[in-house]
Amino acid sequence: MCGIIGYTGSRQVRDILIDGLLKLEYRGYDSAGIAIHNGSMRVIKSPGKVSKLVDLLPRSLDSTTGIAHTRWATHGEPSEINAHPHTSGSGRLAMVHNGIIENAPEIEAYLKEKGYSFISETDTEVLLNLIDYEYGLCGGDILKAMLRSFKKIDGSYALAILEKDRPGRITLCRKDSPLVMGMDDTGYFVASDIYAVSDYTGRFVFPDNDDIIIADNNLGVKAYDGNGKKKELKISHYNINKKSPDHSGYNHYMQKEIFEQPQIISELANSVLSINGQTKHGRSLAEILPGIRRITILGCGTSWHSGLIGKYLIEKHVRIPVNVEYASEFRYRDPVIETGDLVISISQSGETADTIAANKLALEAGAITLGILNVKNSTLDRDTHFQIYLEAGDEIGVASTKAYTAQIVQLSRLTSLLAGMKGNGSAISNISQSLRDISQSMQSVLANAEKISELASKYGFSNNFLFLGRGLNFPTALEGALKLKEISYIHAEGYPGAEMKHGPIALIDFNFPTLVVLTDQESRAKMMSNIKEIKARNGRVIAIINEDDESAEQLVDDVIKVPSVPDIVSPLISVVPLQLFAYYVALLRGCNVDQPRNLAKSVTVE
Ligand code: F6R
Q1: How confident is the model at residue 481 (pLDDT cuts 50, 70, 90)?
Q2: Helices (H), 489-604
Q3: Which of 94, 229, 457, 605 lies 20 to 30 A from 491 at CA?
C-alpha cells in the first residue's frame, strides 16, 4: 500500500508534497514523512496521520525538489524509524517505496557481510542499501545501481530516490506497483496515482514494469527499460477536473456515502448502461457477449461480495456458468481460463494489487476482461478491454458502502443485457423496473436511521456477532459482518443460514447476537427455521424484515423493517440497515469510522 508523491522543478515543493500526501492518505495512514533537497538532503518523519507530519514542518522548506510518503506498515510497526523516506547508511540516497521485497532477509544478510547495518525493520531500508552498495560500486551511476540491484531482488516496488550529490534529480521506477510521472512547464511530478498531481498537469507518463525514469530539474527527463536501454517517453493527456470531496452536512464520509446511495442508484437506473472500450481487434462487448460460454468474476473484500450477487443473478437469469474467485487465490492456483472466457474484475479503486495481478493472468490466458470500476484512469481501467463505471463519485470512507450498491446495480444491468441476448425478456423488464423503484424504498430505510442507532446502543457492546442470509442475501450477510468488523473491531461472521448447523451454532448463547436477513421471499421459510433454531438455544436475534412480516416480528427479539421489494433487488435494500448498524456501533465504541485502524482504502500490496 502506501502513497508516494514527489516533485522536482522550479516550484516550491512543500505544498505539492503535503497536498499530494493528503490525497494519497487513502493508501495508508500510519506514518508519513518527506525528504527535500536544497543543497543538502533533509528528512522529516512522524508516526500517525499526515496532519501530524504537517505540524512538524516549518512554514517554508525553501526547496524545489522533494519526495514524500504516507505509509501502511508491512514490515515493522508504525514508528518514526520505520516511516519513509529512508536514508541509506552512507547518507548518499533517500528513498520512498510502495510494495514488498520478498527476499529482504537474504539481501540484508548479504549487505551485513559487506559492512552495512540497519536501523529500521523495513524491507525498504534493505532495498535502499542494496542500491546504495551498487551505487558505490558503479561510481555514483544511479541507473546502473538500480539495474544491478533489481536483478537481485524478488517482489514488487514503486519507488522514488533522491541523491545527495545530484540536487534537482528524482529517479523513479516500478514493478507491479502503480506509479505515474506528471510533467508541466515547471518540472516533473511523481505519484502513486494520477489524482495526487492532476491539479497541476494534464500530461502523464505511466512507466511500464521495470522502467527507470530519471527526472532532472536541470537536464530534463530520460527513460530506460529494464535492460538499461533508452526508451521514448509515452505521454498521455488527461484533463482531470476533480473537486476535492467534503462531507459537509454529515459527521463522517461513511455516513454521507451511505446516504448518497438512493441518488446514485436512481441516476444509474435511469440511464443507459454505458460500456467503454474494445478488444485489440476493435470488437465491442455487445459483439462478444453472445459468444460467451463461461464467466469468471474476480474481486477482493466487498467487491468479491458483490461478485457473488452477480453470479446468482447471471446464472439464474442468463444460464451461463459463473465462477466467483478471490483474486488473491485465483492468481496463484493455476486456474483454468480459456481464450474467449469473459473475466469480470470488480474493484472500487481499480488499484487492488491482487485484482490487478489476477486480471493480468486472465488477459495472458486469452480472456476478454471487463472492469467494473469506480475510479477512472486507475490501473485496472487501463488493464481491461472493457469498463463499466460505477459513477458513484469519490468513496473516501475506508469501509465501502456506495460502491458496493453501485456494483450490484451495474451487475444487475449487465445481467439484464445478457438476458436480453438470450431472449429472456421478462428478466430484463423485471430488473429495470425494480431498479428504478428501489431508490425510493432505500430512502425510507435511511429515514429509519434513528431506530437502527437505538439497536446499535442496545447490542453494540457484544463482542461477537453472527450474520445470516440465504440465496441472494447470503452475500448481504457477509457484507454486514465485514462492515462491523472493519469499523467497530467486533468479531463477526457471515454465514449462509443453513450452514449454521454445521458448526457456528455451537457459538450461540445470549451474548452472541445474530443479525438475520429475512427480506427475500425465496429463502424466507428456510430462514425462519434457522431463527427458531437460534431461539431454541437462548440466542438473541435481530431480523431485517419486510414491513408487513408480522409472524417474523413475533419470533425475534428486535426487527428493522424495510419496504418489501422484488427479490431481485432485495440485496440493495437489505444491506443498508447493516451499513448503518456498523456505523452506529463504531460511533458508540469511539472508533475512527472513516479511517479504521490497520486498514487502508486501497490495498496496493498483495
Ligand atoms: C470493505 C472494503 C474492502 C475492499 C477491498 C477491495 O469495506 O472496502 O474489503 O472492498 O479491499 O477493494 P477494491 O474494490 O478497491 O478493489
Answers
A1: very high
A2: 521-535, 550-555, 570-588
A3: 605
